[in-house]
Amino acid sequence: MSTDTASAAGRVTAPPPAGWEEARDRAYAVGLAAALPAERRPLAETDGHTLAEPLTTRTDLPAFPTSSVDGWAVRGAGPWRVVGRVLAGGTPAPLTEDGTTVEIATGAMVPEGATAVLRVEESSRTADDLVDGVPRPAPEWRAPGEEAYAGEELLPAGTPVDPALIGLAAACGQDTLLVRRQPRAALLVFGDELLTEGPPAAGRVRDALGPAVPAWLRRYGCQVRPADVVGPVADTLPAHVAAVRAALADADLVCTTGGTMHGPVDHLHPTLTALGADYVVNTVAVRPGFPMLLARLVGDDGRVRFVAGLPGNPQSAVIALVSLVVPLLAGLAGRPMPVLPHATLAEPVPGRGDHTHLALVRLDRVANTAHPVRHVGSAMLRGLAGADGFAVIRPNASGEPGDRVPVLPLPLLPGERAW
After folding, report:
1. Cα–Cα separations (whole angstroms), residue 382 to 91, 314, 360, 376, 388
2. What is the CATH number of domain 342-409?
3. Where along the chain do the CATH 3.90.105.10 domains lie?
4. Cα 55 to Cα 50, 159, 165, 180, 228, distances in angstroms
5. I need a surface site. Which of 73, 123, 301, 304 has the fewest CB within 10 A?
6. pLDDT 10s per residue in the chain (419 long)?
7. Cis bond leading into 79, ω under 30°?
8. Residues forming CATH 3.40.980.10 domain(s) in the chain
9. What's the half-sphere exposure (Cβ side, CA atoms, 13 Å) at 311?
10. Which cofactors must be present for this protein to function (predicted)?
11. CATH number of 66-142: 2.40.40.20, 1.10.8.60, 2.170.190.11, 3.30.160.620?
């Protein structure tokens, strides 16, 4: 296929712009339809993955009555004669006679026949070496099944695995978890005008997305190796086709920067046509960042892969990430569609006509208010560096102080949940 034919085909067959919410829904749906395969992994290797089946417990939790205090497991009325001692990890003999007790440690199994546990600090020893005291009315032990019953579903499939979940799984007696593998992503940076080191000069600008986008992708649960970041790719159609084809060989998702319009060196659309891609979304009615796209390809091996075209302006590229890539990744991981929190606007935010406006804001998490930040042009990064997310101002509306609006959050720390 010639360059002219590919370019013309790309321009003729591209679908019309999608509304922002519709675009998110489309991205999630195609991701979920292509959800990544599940694999069973040891607990220590599951952090950051996603449950592919519900987490259940193999026994009651706790599996046997366990003392919640240090003290004395007693039978009947006191004073009690000491007949033994039980520590955590041991199996005590039953208490068969009233007036007897065993010393017991926190977490130890309560012996059969015990009627109460007396706290050590509320007990005393008599002159004839008996234990005396008054047990509290409420039981001082954890009953079997108090936390969960054997076989009970504790967390559903689609739950992100974090350290708390790993600990719970271990307590349930699980040694492995069935999880969906993390998506593999690659980044192709387009643009002959880009410098990869040093300050901007002589009409060339520093590439800000090559170093930043992989970090965003990792925070959203992707595996991105240094070798998966390529560029700047030469501004020719053959170079673009070769770079995208090579990246798709290993990646589930290839992100590109720049080239999403139809200028003289914008080759992404004809590249997608040459590779036989289908558009999921081609431009979105959102400002900034409208010339974003998401395309789907099916390889000869039957595996589905995706290309996300991010605009070249840095803030617009991040908006494309949070708008299209994040819901796509949620679907690929088998997670629920991200639900947006809400906050109250502290200041006015203008609308953008019939486009959704994603306005950078800083959040006051105590008051749950959103404050617009400065330096928010699509080519600027200063405002983004001080923001917590984007306030969503719906089409044909503006945001007024006191309005409750959705907020598209940014992950702030490695490992922090993004959805």
Report:
1. 63, 10, 11, 7, 13
2. 2.40.340.10
3. 40-60+150-180
4. 11, 9, 9, 14, 33
5. 301
6. 333 333 434 444 455 789 999 999 999 999 999 999 999 999 999 998 999 999 999 999 999 999 999 999 999 998 999 999 999 999 999 999 999 999 999 999 999 999 999 999 999 998 888 999 999 999 999 999 999 999 999 999 999 999 999 999 999 999 999 999 999 999 999 987 776 777 877 778 787 888 899 999 999 989 999 999 998 999 899 999 999 999 999 999 999 998 788 878 788 999 999 999 999 999 999 999 889 999 999 988 889 999 999 998 889 999 999 999 999 999 999 999 989 999 999 999 999 999 999 999 999 989 999 999 998 877 777 888 889 999 999 999 999 999 999 999 998 554 454 44
7. yes
8. 3-36+182-332
9. 25
10. Mg(2+)
11. 2.170.190.11
Q: What is the CATH number of domain 40-60+150-180?
A: 3.90.105.10
CA distance 321 to 255: 9
Q: What's 144's DSSP letter?
A: T
DSSP β-bridge partners for residue 369: 344, 364
Q: Say whether the peptide bond before residue 288 is cis (omega within 30 degrees of 0).
A: yes
pLDDT at 162: 93
Write out the residue limits of the CATH 2.170.190.11 domain(s) in the chain: 66-142
Helix axes 3-13, 237-248, angle to 10 degrees: 70
Positive or negative: CA dihedral 116, 120, 123, 128: positive
Buried b / exposed e along 184-200 (16+ C-beta atoms within 10 A) = bbbbbbbbeebeeeeee
Token representation of residue 147: 């936390």
* Assigned CATH topology for domain 3-36+182-332: Molybdenum Cofactor Biosythetic Enzyme; Chain A (3.40.980)
